[in-house]
Amino acid sequence: MEPIILIPNVVLISIFIIIYLARCHHKGTAPSQSKMLNLGTNAISTCCAICLTAGALYKPALEYISELSLYIFLFGLLMLINAITATYKILK
Fold it and tell me: Residue 15: CB partners within 8 Å, gap ≥ 6?
């Protein structure tokens, strides 16, 4: 994994999980591993979205995006799943 993606992912995942665990501790509930995994995928998709936006706005960032085709594919897949889930919840 490229450091330009790895470091922000680790930071975001750590922040999200620390906030989630603090809220669980404050409420007195047990943490859910599935929610922590979901936080991790949200952090990854956030970093990929930032890279895509940076590539559109800042030309030297295009060099990094060409190396991140797997992450761009995963981000697109996550966005598709999110859109289908949201649509299902609205129509349900």
Answer: none
Residue 65 contacts by C-beta under 8 Å, 6 or more apart in sequence? Answer: 51, 52, 55, 72
**Cβ–Cβ < 8 Å for 41, 17:** no
- What is the phi/psi pair of residue 32, to 5°? -105, 130
Q: Let me know: does 73 contact 45? Beta carbons within 8 Å.
A: no
Number of residues that this document lists for the chain:
92
- Cα separation, 24 vs 3, in Å, equals 31
Question: What's the rounded Cα separation, in Å, for the pair 82 and 49?
Answer: 14
CA 55 to chain centre: 17
Say what the pTM is: 0.65
Q: Which residue has the higher pLDDT, 60 or 66?
A: 60
CA distance 47 to 8: 7
